[in-house]
Amino acid sequence: MAEQQLPTLQPPVGGSTVDAMIEARVATLEADVRHIRDDVAEMKLDLRELRTDLKDLRERLQGSRVEAQSSMEGLRSETHSGLAELRVNLATLNERIAHLPTKGYIGWWFTFAMSTIIAAMTILSRFGFLVPGVTK
């Protein structure tokens, strides 16, 4: 930034000390204003750099957001397909369980088998086949 050259104050004609003190104070203020201008110029540069960095960060975040959304869509579709497969497996398992014999059915066959064995042993013992020592 080009600095404007301000005209320097000319010493007063009368040569009073008050005018010299004011001139010294004005010179100090002018120097301070130059430093302030330099600092403001640096701050403007820093702000430009921050804007650039912020713009880059926004672009990267936007890219990350798009990647995250596509990943979420992939996970969502995998979850849906996994749930569908789980439903099919559950239906298959329910169908297989429905065809298994019940406790009543098993109990009935067990009672029938035991009754048949007991009846056969009773008949065999009446004919003497199960009595020890008797040979026929």
Describe this structure in a few short sentences.
Residues 33-67 form a coiled coil. The model has no long low-confidence stretch (mean pLDDT 86). The chain has 136 residues and is mainly alpha-helical.
Gyration radius from CA atoms, angstroms: 53 Å
Number of domains: 2
Task: Count the beta strands.
Answer: 0
Shape label: rod-shaped
Our count of helices gives 2
Supply the helix-strand structural class.
mainly alpha
- Beta-strand fraction estimate: under 5%
How far apart lie the N and C ends?
134 Å
Overall average residue pLDDT: 86
Helix content: over 70%
Low-confidence stretches: none
Sheet of most strands: none
**SSE succession:** HH
What does this structure look like?
The structure is a single chain. This protein is mainly alpha-helical. The protein has 2 domains: 83 residues; 30 residues. It is 78% helix and 0% strand. The chain contains 2 helices and no strands. The radius of gyration is 53 Å and the shape is rod-shaped. The model has no long low-confidence stretch (mean pLDDT 86).
